[in-house]
Structures are given as C-alpha cells and as structure tokens.
C-alpha cells in the first residue's frame, strides 16, 4: 500500500504532474552529453527563478540541507566569523552547521514569530567587519515569517558575503538574488518549486566563487565542495565528481518548465491569493495566526490550534480520514500549533477548499 496524500505540510508538496511524469524517463549516465545538456538547461531555468545571471548556478545533489551545508562549508574556513539572523528553527540550523564547519557564530536574534531587523544585522557586520558572511533565512518555515532581504544589499560595499536560504521562498514569493546583492543562495525542490525532494538549487556570485578559489584550506567536505561541483557540471571537459541522478534532475527540469511556462508573476500571484484566503479562514475556525502581520508568508502558515483540540489526534484524523498531511508546530508551537503549506502545485483553490472542508470534522 502506498497512499496518495494531499501534502499540505511545510514540504514536501505534491509535485506538478509534469515533474512526476519525468521520473519514468530512462536513466542517463552522469557524464552523458545529453545529461550535461539537461543540467545546463536546468541551471538556465534556475537562474530565471533565482533572479540572477550568476554563472555558478547548479542543481546540487541532496535536499535543501545539502545546499545549506555546501554553501557554509565552501565559503567558511575554520576560525572565521559568521553572523546569522535567528528568528526560528532554520536560523538555528544555520548556526549549527556553521559551527560544525569550524566557524565562530554570532547570532543576531529576534523572537520566533517576528521578523529580523535588517539594521541589527548590518550593525553587527559594522562592529565585526572581518565577518566572512551574514546568513539569513528568507522564509522561516518554522514560524511563517518572511524576512526583509533588500536592505542587506548594503553588504555589497563590505568584504562580508550575504548568504540566503530560499528553501521555502523560491517559486512562492519574489526572490531577487542579483537585485538584493545575494552572494550565495540555496533552495530545495520539494517546496514551492513543485518537484520531488532530492535536489538543492544553489547559485553563487562571482565574488563568492573568488572566495572559494582563494581559500587557505580545502573545503572540509569533498561531496559538498561547490568548486568541485562546478568543475563537474560546467567544466571543460566535465570532471567526474559523483553519480548525479538524471532521474531527479529530469523531474526538476520538468517542474521548472511548468512553472516558467505559467510565468513567475502568475505563480507568485496564486500563492499570494490562496495564502490570504487560508489566513482569513483559519481564525473563523478558532486558530490564532502566529506570524506578525505584514510579514506573513502566503505559502506557509503557522497557527495555534483552537482551545481544546489535541494536536496529534487531530493530525491523525486529518491524515487517516481525509488523506491530508499538515506539519506539527516547532519551538513555541510544539504540540499546540500547526504549519500549513500551500506550495507549488498545491497553491491552487482545490487543495485549500479540500482542507477547509475537512476542518470542522476533525476539530470536534
Ligand atoms: C525545509 C527547509 C530546510 C531544509 O531542507 P530539507 O530539504 O528538508 O533538507 C532548510 N531551510 C528552510 C527554511 C526550510 O524550510
């Protein structure tokens, strides 16, 4: 038995039909010219979605966390300083991974549910201008908060790089890598991009590429060394590094094709519309929205459960009686709240009305 769920949690989301269809194509070798052309076209599509002209733009093997580790491991050397905005679970994970690659971490915190203060991040950089990078999560999936990135463009005038997590934002809300002066950016395919999990889109600015080239010590991880991945996918001739999955990249390529055919503005618009409708409806059912107004993500809504509703039992009923998955709460919402995603192919009216229709039965 393998159930067909409506995936309305914080990811994975149900992929676009085109992305699922592509999974059944014949496997190609990892150095087949046809496969490398597929990678190049996928990278081209990713540049459009990221809003960048960066040459180093790649579908890295692994999930979003692999993108996070590849960027931090490739850009940070042991003993260097990383300033990290922390207003939720994924900001904390950035700190954890940066420490594991040997960096010193200076967190710049904000309460869960509130947005980061960009000025506080810029002030931290001014006080420690030797910091190698400032890292921020664009869409904090643990709280449903959107952090403001555009003001951090001021880091372009310093020697500190800007690293951005767009795992939950890419394909759901506008991401403008070049306009915002982002030096390193990673995402994942199973959230708003509408493909299965397993690929982490990554893009690096020229100055981030130069930083890796000028490292004193080699990147601590062979597998996550972005300069080796660059030499594999874009080298002349391509240099074997690992056996990348043509199956997954075909799927991502097809999902991105569908997304770009619809057009980014239209895709952002339907995420905005269904998210707004969900956030208008939840309080009528007794939920309390968690993220501060004005900074709520349409694609991911965190909300406290109505008084008297048990988290585990209600999610079990939703799954077993209606085939719908939502996410449990993290941090202050653990055991008392849900995270509801309307991402990618699920950012359409039907998944929303299906979820809202099921609510009365499982909240009693
Ligand atoms: C999901 C998520 C990740 C981790 O991605 P995985 O694909 O689960 O490894 C990282 N950052 C954010 C903001 C996320 O939402």
**General form:** globular
Number of helices: 11
Under CATH at level 1, the class of the largest domain stands as Alpha Beta
- Mean pLDDT metric: 98
CATH architecture of the largest domain: 3-Layer(aba) Sandwich
User: What portion of the residues fall into strands of 2 or more residues?
Assistant: 15-25%
The CATH homologous superfamily of the largest domain = Type I PLP-dependent aspartate aminotransferase-like (Major domain)
Q: Main beta sheet, described?
A: 7 strands, mixed
Measure the end-to-end span. Answer: 29 Å
CATH third-level topology of the largest domain: Aspartate Aminotransferase, domain 2
Radius of gyration computed on alpha carbons: 20 Å
User: Fraction of residues in helices?
Assistant: 25-40%
Bound molecules: pyridoxal-5'-phosphate
Brief digest:
The chain is α/β, with parallel strands linked by helices. The protein is built from eleven helices and 15 strands. It folds into two domains: 107 residues, Alpha-Beta Complex (Aspartate Aminotransferase, domain 1); 243 residues, 3-Layer(aba) Sandwich (Aspartate Aminotransferase, domain 2), CATH 3.40.640.
